[in-house]
Structures are given as C-alpha cells and as structure tokens.
Design goal:
The protein is α+β, with helices and mostly antiparallel strands. It has two domains: 71 residues, Double Stranded RNA Binding Domain, CATH 3.30.160; 75 residues, Ribosomal Protein S5, domain 2, CATH 3.30.230.10. The chain contains five helices and eight strands. The strands form two sheets. A four-stranded antiparallel sheet has the order 1-2-3-4. It has a four-stranded mixed sheet with strand order 5-6-8-7. The longest helix is centred in the middle third of the chain and has 14 residues.
C-alpha cells in the first residue's frame, strides 16, 4: 500500500521560463522573478504553474506547487496521442500529431517539456506564430485538452443520434 502511494507522487518538473520583472518606484527599481513550471506524472497527467517571488528559488517552488495542484488528465494511446490536434493561445499556435513507435519526441523546447512530463514517447509537434514560451505552453495544453478517448466519442455520438 505504501509503494502505490510513492508511485503516485513521482512527478517530473520542468522549469520552462524564469523572468526578471522590474517595478519602477519613486525610490528606484524593485526586482522580482516570475517562473513557469510544467509538472507531470509521466502517465497522462500534466499541469502548469506560474509562481512569482523576490527570489528565483521561491518563485520556482511556488510554480511547482501550483502545477501539481492543477493537473489535467490527457488520454494517451500507448506512447503517443490518438489523432492530430491544433491548439491556440494568443498569437501562438501548436500542431501536435501522433507518430509511429520509435520516432521519439520531435518538438521544440516548451512543447517537448510538456510531452516528457506527460510520458509521451512518440509525437510530432510544430509551434507556429508567437514563440512566447508562456503562450506556447498554454496553446499546447489547449491542444491536448481537445483529445478524447474512443469510448467517450462513441458515447457522445450515441446520445446525439
């Protein structure tokens, strides 16, 4: 019983972006940090978190906690996805396609981190438009959220008929 709990709590965390944010006040400039983290259990669950703090390590810790709280489940077909999907957020657009076994993860930085956190081994992805990492991550999650299982799709079709 204790072993199964340990397996559930194994998360892969990827720091996507750390930005220094400057606030100009009448006494000078105040610096703080903003961190974007992707966390996943490599078994179909992934979440993103944004943390802000005056220190980098605290910002990353906050972002990691937030990412682990807001996990979403993605239906996988083996080590890939079932069908091609397109996700958009802001000016970013991400196209994700399933790939045959042995292809590997062919994707850019932010998208690659999400796929590795999810546990997807074979996938093709292309990021178009804005390369803002935060928007690319959200566009990728938008695309993955559109995925449905075959069972769920058949239930939807049966209720409409």
């Amino acid at each position: 019983m204790a072993e199964s709990r340990e397996k559930e709590n194994i998360f892969s965390d990827f720091v996507i972006n750390v930005r220094r944010v400057t606030k100009v006040t009448k006494g000078g400039k105040r610096f703080s940090f903003s961190a974007l983290v992707v966390s996943g259990n490599q078994n179909g669950q992934v979440g993103i978190g944004l943390g802000k703090s005056k220190e980098v390590s605290q910002a990353i810790a906050k972002a990691t906690n937030r990412a682990r709280k807001d996990l979403i489940s993605i239906p996988l077909r083996g080590a890939t996805i079932a069908y091609p999907v397109i996700g958009k957020h802001g000016a970013s657009k991400v196209i994700i396609r399933s790939a045959s076994k042995g292809t590997g993860v062919i994707a850019g930085g932010a998208v690659r981190s999400i796929m590795e956190a999810l546990g997807i081994k074979d996938v093709l992805a292309k990021s178009l438009g804005s390369s803002n990492r935060q928007n690319v991550v959200k566009a990728t999650l938008n695309a993955l959220a559109k995925l449905r299982t075959a069972k769920h799709l058949s239930q939807l079709r049966n209720t409409q008929a």
